[in-house]
Specification:
Layout: E1 4-8, H1 12-24, E2 28-32, H2 35-42, E3 49-53, H3 61-70, E4 79-84, H4 88-96, E5 101-105, H5 109-128, E6 134-137, E7 140-143, E8 148-151, E9 154-156, H6 160-171, E10 177-178, H7 179-187, H8 196-209, E11 219-222, E12 226-229
Parallel strand pairs: 1-2, 1-3, 3-4, 4-5
Antiparallel strand pairs: 6-7, 7-8, 8-9, 10-12, 11-12
Amino acid sequence: MAECVYITEDDDSIRELVSVALSAYSYEVHSFVSAEDCLDAVKKKVPDIFLFDIMLPGIDGVQAVKLLREAKETKDTPILMLTAKSAEIDKVFGLENGADDYLTKPFGIMELAARIKALLRRAGRNSSDTESETITAGGITVNTALREVSIGNTPVELTLKEYELLLYLIKNRSRVVSREELLAKIWGVDFVGETRTLDMHIGTLRKKLGDEAENSHIIKTVRGIGYRFIGE
């Protein structure tokens, strides 16, 4: 069965181009001009992935993502944000409110397809993963069976990418993990795009863990190399 994509974009040319292109990749594509229309459609069918423009009439893309993350049916569904190239603040807001990744305009169809494929692959692996364990490090507890993270008794809501990043860093906390390795392991070897994606996800992850400094006691930046989970 074809995987279902919901794209919400008010620019007619972009919406039509993406819809036609993704249909050619054998996805079932449904397009919407407004977030309200997309959210109404979710009541009938939850897609495998959402694509949201930031600037939309009525409810904007960031607000829509927040609503989807608050709903039980869509809290784990992958979300890819489409943002203006200069609007870095929009990217941060999108990631902080639950988006899994972002893509800046203008973008190539092959890059878009690669991002979608990677998000769907990661989400599918998590949903069918039979490995079950509880990992505790630096006061952070990760339950891999439920994909839940907590600090003490306080749950921490993470996106799919943030969760994957944290889990990978914790499992490899005995060493510094390079940026290239993280991009390959978390976004996939077929990842196409700017490495700024990783930095922004690390930033939102630190914020949710309550420590935003580069030399934090949770995730430390090792200049010129990558990151290391300290947790102490």
